[in-house]
TrEMBL record:
Organism: Morella rubra
Entry EC no(s): 5.2.1.8
Region Disordered: start-end pairs: 1-36
One GO MF term attached to the UniProt entry: peptidyl-prolyl cis-trans isomerase activity
Keyword Repeat listed: no
Comp. bias regions, Basic and acidic residues: 1-12
UniProt protein name: Peptidyl-prolyl cis-trans isomerase
Keywords: Isomerase, Rotamase
Domain PpiC: 57-156
Stored Pfam families: Rotamase (PF00639)
Stated family: Belongs to the PpiC/parvulin rotamase family. PIN4 subfamily.
């Protein structure tokens, strides 16, 4: 009986070590190049992917008027103020489009200043900042970029 008990004990110990060894083996397989656990690397990759997708999927739709000279953009903005902004009203997109056709020096002026949908990161510097910070339906004040002077009408935002 004593011998059988020892055989069972040693067998149990052997199985225990094997199970523990199997766990260690799986853990070492999960390490990345830097020796980090697979869980840490997976979480990091997931966060990067999540952030990337949220940036790409945050799209914005706008119209704009672009003028090389500040005096010309101010003239267009005065018309917007006299017609709608001075009363606290929003500028109807069709009316903004008419002014863009009349004043804008950008090729999009022919299409009423319509820029369509664009993701964050596509437009340069101040234009992007103003575009993404102007509430939908609102019109920005004139501002300067490397391309000239702009007024933006924010038309939509989608994720």
């Amino acid at each position: 009986m004593g011998k059988d008990a020892k055989a069972k004990d040693s067998g149990a110990k052997g199985k225990g070590k094997q199970a523990a060894g199997g766990a260690d083996e799986n853990a070492s397989k999960g390490k990345g190049k830097g020796g980090k656990a697979a869980d840490g690397l997976g979480t990091c990759t997931y966060v990067k992917d999540l952030c990337f997708h949220s940036i790409v999927l945050a799209n914005y739709s706008a119209r704009h008027i672009l003028c090389e000279k500040q005096g010309k953009i101010n003239e267009a903005y005065k018309k917007l103020q006299d017609g709608w902004l001075g009363n606290g009203d929003k500028v109807p997109p069709a009316e903004f489009a008419k002014l863009a056709q009349e004043y804008s020096e950008c090729p999009s002026g022919k299409k009423g200043g319509d820029l369509g949908w664009f993701p964050r990161g596509k437009m340069a510097g101040p234009f992007q900042e103003v575009a993404f910070n102007t509430p939908v339906g609102a019109t920005s004040a004139p501002f300067k970029s490397t391309h000239g002077y702009h007024i933006i009408l924010a038309e939509g935002r989608k994720n």
